[in-house]
Amino acid sequence: AVGGVSIRTAAQFDESLRKIAALTDTSAETVNSWREDVRKLAVQYGATGTAAAEALFSIAGAGIKGDKAMEALEASLIGAAIGLGDAATVSDAATSAMNAYAKSGMTATRATEILAAGINWGKMEATQLAPVLGSLTGTSSALGISFEDVVATLAVFSLTGTNAAEGATQLSAIMSTMLGTSQEAEKALADVGLSLAQLREMAAGPRGILNVMRLLNERFDGQLDKLALVIPNIRAFRGVMNALAQDSAHVDKVFAGVTDSHGNLAQSLKEMEGPAMAMRRAWAQLTDAAIAIG
Predict the structure, then answer these.
(1) List of residues 6+ apart from 53 with CB closer than 8 A
(2) In angstroms, rounded to a whole number, what is the distance separating the alpha carbons of residues 172 and 159?
(3) Residue ranges of the alpha helices (H) in the chain?
(4) Cβ partners under 8 Å of residue 69, min gap 6
(5) How confident is the model at residue 4 (pLDDT cuts 50, 70, 90)?
(6) pLDDT in the model for residue 215
(7) What is this structure's pTM?
(8) Contact at 8 Å (CB) between 59 and 69?
């Protein structure tokens, strides 16, 4: 029976790695060179080899290669270990950010730090945040909005009970508004001395989305019917009202906390050390032994 389990475990691990060579542009030679590193990282962070290989499939599928692929795998396994979701889901969010913000040098480690900070400062379920980010990063990077600001905005929305999926819908609608060319919106903005171009320029700065919402609130000064001409999408409008209704000092703290999150993964991992982590590592060691035997 033990032999059968070992063979099955080894076969599943092998198949997950072979899938990388079969379905991405990664060569079989490269995949084979990763085998030992994948196993070591899996044991180190309390994951099965197969779970690590599935995360690596997501990473390779996103076009991440070489040392960056292994860095992304380690960051994803750490993210899974501290509760951000399974490694494949974390890797999907991290690589989406890496690709969208490639020009700014976004790394998987930094993307995962930002994810963890968003969970820390908001009220989102950890497993809900990572899956929704891929739908936002293309538009946000095109507008020059930082990944930190994207996650911080979702964290702020969540403080009043908005879940990650709804928050993502609201933020997407807000960004779409800034990309638009509505004549009604331009006229309403012109009436208060603004333009969509000015809003886009502001959005690309530090805390840009937050500053745009605050500027609109200041200029329209309670004229919600006119503000609705600028933000006609009801979900976007709700998102803006959500953020503006909150204590501004605390909102500032959320944005600062997410931005100033460098190095937080090591501390989060340290805080997770305990009986549960020890049990996961023990299981990871058993499954790794099965892979070796099989």
Answers:
(1) 13, 16, 17, 20, 38
(2) 18
(3) 2-23, 28-44, 49-61, 66-81, 87-100, 108-121, 126-143, 147-158, 164-179, 183-190, 196-203, 208-220, 224-230, 234-245, 248-259, 264-272, 275-293
(4) 34, 56, 59, 60
(5) low
(6) 92
(7) 0.89
(8) yes
